[in-house]
Amino acid sequence: MKKVLIFLEELVEDVEFLYPYLRFKEEGYDVVSAAPTMKEYRGKKGMGFKPDITLKEVVHKNFDCIFIPGGYAPDRLRRYTEVLSLVKRHYEEGKLIAAVCHGPWVLISAKVVEGKRVTGFFAIKDDLINAGADYTGEPVEADKNLITATDPSSMLDMIKVIVRKLSKTEEAQR
Fold first, then answer.
1. Which CATH superfamily groups domain 3-168?
2. Which of 32, 33, 49, 123 is the most exposed place for a label (fewest CB within 10 A)?
3. CA angle, 39 as apex, 36 and 40 as ends, to 5°?
4. What is the pLDDT of residues 137-152, one digit of tens each?
5. pLDDT at 61
6. How crowded is residue 20: how many other Cβ atoms within 10 Å of its Cβ?
């Protein structure tokens, strides 16, 4: 069974957390949300979310995909060494890392975007370019194990790409 980790922090873009969380469960994946502490986090639109585990509990676990939702949460998430080291390690191991909207801020701080084709919310275009990324502005961009998307409207296609790539790794393991 494929395992997907979704990060959670204050002011996450509600739909960018909830849609992938439920959609990956619908695919039959083991989905785990992780946040700094076990408390209720408020989304930008006011929804409340409780994580499954804390960041400290996730450090030594392995996942097939890490999903980083947007909103203001990524600006907070990139301050945690647990998040950055986990993203960096999974990236280096060739495992999928997906980020939507402002989520690529975490990729920048984990130092995994240099020389990669990426996209994200237009407001972070300069940040991505300054980090050495090839910013495309496309709704969804996939460069090897990095999958990025611009905003909630691009998530339908983004999730299809993630599911397709996870299915290919499953087939290769058989």
1. Class I glutamine amidotransferase (GATase) domain (3.40.50.880)
2. 123
3. 115
4. 999 999 999 999 999 9
5. 74
6. 23
